[in-house]
Amino acid sequence: MATLIFFISLVFYTVYFTSLTNYYFIILWLLVSLPLSFLTMLFFYLLNFPLVAILPSKHPYKSYMMRSMAYFLNHFILNLKVTIDGIENLPKDGPLVIYANHKSYTDAFAILEVLPRAITLTPKKSVMKLPLISWWLKAYNVFPINRNNPRETVIELDKAVETVKSGHAILVFPEGNIGNRLDPNVKSMKPGAFKLALKAAANILVVRYDGNDLLRKRAPFKRSRRKLTLMKLIHFDEIKDFTTHQIAELVMSRINAKHA
For residue range 165-218, what is the model confidence (pLDDT) as tens digits? Predict the structure, then answer.
């Protein structure tokens, strides 16, 4: 949807402005129309906010809106091609927490585009201070992380547990921060990140990101590629008696393994 709106707007603005002047200026009007088309797309999403706010968090339309925006950003802003392996390991429903290595600020966009299931995110608390973005994210029942106030994160954790129990999957980056972009392996994980899976009695899907990790130095002029590998599902019964430290070790070993 985002891509369609953008290109329809681009054609409309370019033709309209050209019709007011001369076709010799078509390149100029095309350049002028690019930011206008992007703003038009954002305005359309803003108009949809009341509907997004009242729909259930797992509603297919809400998932479509998020996936559509991720597709547009990946292909036309970041110049990022995403492939996925192991899609058969993704359960269609049920409580699920997705744990992945963190290689780039674009990791969330990558998985939102290709995962055919409603998922929500774990943004930093600072992101939730941005007016329009925070309104949109709250409609998706995100789990904000406040590294400076653990007590506040605990309160949000209880809400996240209910979200997962309802069948809305949550994507978590248990490293806490973006790791070494040039090192393919994970060095450490925060055990507290796995309290969510234990409290929600959820299955765990481990995802490994591989590919161009210096995307911010390449986009938008150089094509980047990222591969997501969905590993064999870890059922809750397998880890229900584990400590969070043990689960962290298990997930880290899965991500670091050459073959899952």
Answer: 999 999 999 987 776 666 778 888 989 899 999 999 999 999 999 886 667 777
Please report, for the chain, the start and end positions of each structural domain, with discontinuous segments joined by +: 1-77, 79-260
Query: To which CATH superfamily is domain 79-260 assigned?
Result: Glycerol-3-phosphate (1)-acyltransferase (3.40.1130.10)
| 26-80 pLDDT, tens digit each | 999 999 999 999 999 999 999 999 998 899 888 999 999 999 999 999 999 999 9
Residue 126 backbone dihedrals phi, psi, to 5 degrees: -60, -30
**E strand residue ranges, 65-219:** 80-85, 96-100, 119-120, 169-172, 203-211
What distances in angstroms separate CA 246 from CA 29, 142, 174, 207, 243, one per listed residue? 59, 26, 13, 18, 5
Nearest alpha carbon to residue 90 among 171, 161, 157: 171
The pTM assigned to this predicted structure is 0.89
